[in-house]
Amino acid sequence: MTGMIGTALPRRDGPAKLHGTAPYAYEHDVEHPAYAHLVQATIARGRVTGFDLSAANALDDVLAILTHENAPRLEDTGNAELAVLQDDAVAFRGQVVAVVVAETPETARQAANAIQVTYDSEPHETRLRADDAGLYTPEKVNPALPTESSQGDVESALASADVTVDEVYTTPMEHNNPMEPHTTVAHWDGDRLTLYDSTQGVHPLRSAVASLFGLDEDRVRVVAPYVGGGFGSKGQPHAPVALAVLCARHLTGRPVKLAITRQQMFSLVGYRTPTIQRIRLAADHTGALTGIAVDVVEQTARVKEFAEQTATPSRSMYAAPHRRTGHRLAELDVPVPSWMRAPGECPGMFGPEVAMDELAQRCEVDPIALRIRNEPELDPDSGKPFSSRNLIGCLEDGARRFGWDARDPRPRTRLEDGWWIGTGVASSTYPVHMSPGSVAEIRYTADGRYEVAIGAADLGTGTWTVLAQVAADRLDVPVDRVELRIGDTDLPNATVAGGSSGVASWGSAIADAAGAFRDKFGTDPAAGDEASGRTPDLSETFAMRAFGAQFAEVAVHADTGEVEVRRLLGVFAAGRIVNPRTARSQFLGGMTMGLSMALHEQSVMDHRYGHVVNHDLAEYHIATCADVRSLEAHWLDETDEHVNPLGTKGIGEIGIVGTAAAVANAAWHATGVRVRDLPITPDRFL
Amino acid sequence: MEATITITVDGRQRTVAVDTRTTLLDALRDRLAVTAPKKGCDHGQCGSCTVLLDGRRVLSCLALAVAHDGAEVVTAAGLDNDRLRETFLDNDAFQCGYCTPGQLCSAAGMLDELKAGWPSAVTDGEPTLSASEIRERMAGNLCRCGAYVGIVAAIQEAGR
Ligand code: FES
Ligand code: FES
């Protein structure tokens, strides 16, 4: 072991990114491409009754217009989100009803705008309501978790408690908005299909496309060495990739580029469902919990079900003998919700962590002491021991760094220069995932380097750097002798970059391959020697989660209600950290997105028409450079040999979990106003 | 309708026929295969497409190519400022890298503006290279990965 694991190596893909030469999906060099542009439905529900294509067809340089009337038939239409242009049904506003391919992007767009579509509209429903008569209980929630959980008798616990909290919290519809819009360049060449795609998983995308079009997987190649962010929205295939392939099939031999617009991203590539969370806590007067009930209402799309696991983090956070959680869905005429950074945990730690602050207030107990008092010995959900659990360590270390001790617990006591100032805390958690099925290959080259190959993805997560470190460490060679290859289905199979599972899944496969390589060839291999390894199975003996604590200092302007997050500090216990430099960026990036969620993010649906009105970056606000003041991420040295051979727990998502609650709690402490609905906008304080 | 323009891109003179509706960003990316400037929104809302146009930072998605015949364009690929690249790498001021070419061009343009004494909304007296000045002046370059802390530190270090 060279000790490369734990070293703050600068990003290996840095020079390419800092010269702008790292190729993203749109930028691969293909010969003589054609350009596609989408036409979207302007009704929320109904049928297409006809197209007037005459103006579009009259334009020079239009190569093809595909609609459900002439598009090639798909082999497998089981995933209705991907079954594009197969019939006349419109299931949500913004669904694609036609696509134009032209010689230039300008002409493609002009022709798309010139297409007239007529519809037969039906009444639609896009508003999520807790009292919707059609609410139903899904069979499972994402990814395959039980919809409900129950222990003891929570109603009796609530009825007999000294202190209770019974409040409703909401989080709005939010869109991932990675900076790189979703793009596919598709090329049918003879009987082979090549895709340059902005995807979080080349192999899973290949499988999806192969079954959609009835192809053998070995005829499809997906390439994605660089991806301009994803945050879940590039984790599952969405309609645009299917449309690009349809166009390329229609124009065989000609590469087709389809880059969707920022506006189109608001209806075609997933989003976080709005959630309505009723949280009930029962406790004795010291704050010891006797009951926890979390009931969540959220939406899914009529065209395809996605059930966010919002209530699930509450199953493992705090001890209480009586508890229940459940999810109910409203099936609406809306675009398909999907993964957005920490699905489940991110919205699902907002309500409960604000409720804990309210309980602390009602019991007159310090919010940190309250959390420590309710620390469980075993995982309350499964009854298993935790492989490691250092929530208390994070709270205590954070309190010390943040200067929590000096805090006056009373709200609305600090007014400085016209700003009310307060501080707040919330816990973070995220489950440890490792996906089975990744394979890594290591080959020794004639010039003395180790080629490490795996079809993994780097969305900015640091994969290019940290997997090389893992290989160098396990081969016991300097990292500059490791040449990593990722992002291509020509390389060995890799699972999706999702669930913060990348290093655990791919890194463990590389560690296994390195062990096999040394076993077989010793330390003096010959050119061409190669060995492979696989991801091991996840232990079932333990409950495995990462934990953290986030502290916020918030200022609210006394006259205007403007909200500033002046300080944000997080401490995490997330297993072994492979690269402190890139890991810090993951934590800070998550916290920044959490700050953004706390103050800004909200997709506003116009229910008359069923579309998001603020569908661009001028009106869907995300945190800018000016919003982020003092921001710090720290972590505890945590050794956990049970999670996986590397001891890592995953760090891509936990940073966004709990941030919004910490900010809301600090805003209450500043002003005495309890905000239970995100985002925390100025009007709440006026 | 097409028009032929000649522009200098990263020190190289290029002559190209463009649709008169083509933005400078699309002319660079689609016609000249200069892909350092990125398209994040195409509406002047994100900063990913920032280049230096005749020495000043502009959003190339809001510039029509045909209006800039004879212009000199510098992208992140040709930016003569390795110090900024060094401090960005050191401070891990990027993750996915998609906003990065725009951040770099914007940072270079911003440092020049500051040096010339241009005030910003937060300036009080003489503008200095403070974190709050940098945050304000870089607020037009969105980074969804949330690398702002590193970006501010990198620019402050490079500007010293
Ligand atoms: S692409 Fe020009 S500002 Fe977003
Ligand atoms: S580095 Fe990914 S958007 Fe800035």
Secondary structure elements and pairings:
The complex is a heterodimer of chains A (686) and B (160).
Chain A: H1 14-18, E1 34-40, E2 46-52, H2 54-57, E3 62-67, E4 89-90, E5 96-102, H3 105-114, E6 116-121, E7 140-141, E8 145-146, E9 149-151, H4 154-159, E10 163-171, E11 183-189, E12 192-197, H5 202-213, E13 220-223, H6 239-250, E14 256-259, H7 265-268, E15 275-283, E16 289-301, E17 322-332, H8 345-348, H9 350-363, H10 367-373, H11 391-402, E18 415-416, E19 419-431, E20 439-444, E21 450-453, H12 463-475, E22 482-485, H13 502-521, E23 530-534, E24 545-557, E25 563-573, H14 580-599, E26 605-606, E27 611-612, E28 630-635, H15 659-671
Parallel strand pairs in A: 1-14, 12-13, 16-17, 21-22, 25-28
Antiparallel strand pairs in A: 1-5, 2-4, 2-6, 3-5, 7-8, 9-17, 10-15, 11-12, 11-14, 15-16, 18-19, 19-24, 20-21, 20-23, 24-25, 26-27
Helix pairs in contact in A: 9-15, 12-13, 14-15
Chain B: E1 2-9, E2 12-19, H1 24-31, E3 50-53, E4 56-59, E5 72-74, H2 82-90, H3 100-115, H4 131-137, H5 148-159
Parallel strand pairs in B: 1-5
Antiparallel strand pairs in B: 1-2, 3-4, 3-5
Helix pairs in contact in B: 2-5
The complex binds FE2/S2 (inorganic) cluster (FES) (2 copies).
One FE2/S2 (inorganic) cluster sits between chains B (94-100, 143-145, 147) and A (179, 229, 460).
What does this structure look like?
The complex is a heterodimer of chains A (686) and B (160). Chain A is an alpha+beta fold and 686 residues long. Chain A has three domains: 14-22 and 435-534, Aldehyde oxidase/xanthine dehydrogenase, molybdopterin binding domain (Aldehyde Oxidoreductase, domain 4), CATH 3.30.365.10; 31-123 and 179-229 and 235-268, Alpha-Beta Complex (Aldehyde Oxidoreductase, domain 3); 140-174 and 271-432 and 542-680, Aldehyde Oxidoreductase, domain 4, CATH 3.30.365.10. Chain A is built from 15 helices and 28 strands. In chain A, the strands form seven sheets. Chain A has a seven-stranded mixed beta sheet, sandwiched between helices. Chain A has a five-stranded mixed beta sheet with strand order 9-17-16-15-10. Chain A has a five-stranded mixed beta sheet with strand order 18-19-24-25-28, with helices on both faces. In chain A, strand 15 and strand 16 (289-301) form a beta hairpin. In chain A, helix 9 (350-363) packs parallel to helix 15 (659-671) and helix 12 runs parallel beside helix 13. The longest helix of chain A has 20 residues, at 502-521. Chain A starts with 13 loop residues before the first helix and ends in a 15-residue tail after the last helix. The N and C termini of chain B lie far apart (48 Å). Chain B has 160 residues and is of the alpha+beta class. Chain B has two domains: 2-77, Beta-grasp domain (Ubiquitin-like (UB roll)), CATH 3.10.20; 80-159, [2Fe-2S]-binding domain (DNA polymerase, domain 1, Orthogonal Bundle), CATH 1.10.150. In chain B, helix 2 packs across helix 5 (148-159). A five-stranded mixed beta sheet of chain B has the order 2-1-5-3-4, with helices on both faces. The model of chain B has no long low-confidence stretch (mean pLDDT 97). The longest helix of chain B is centred in the C-terminal third of the chain and has 16 residues, at 100-115. The complex binds FE2/S2 (inorganic) cluster (2 copies). Chain B: Pfam families: Fer2 (PF00111), Fer2_2 (PF01799). Chain B: It comes from Actinophytocola algeriensis. Chain B: Keywords: 2Fe-2S, Iron, Iron-sulfur, Metal-binding, Oxidoreductase.
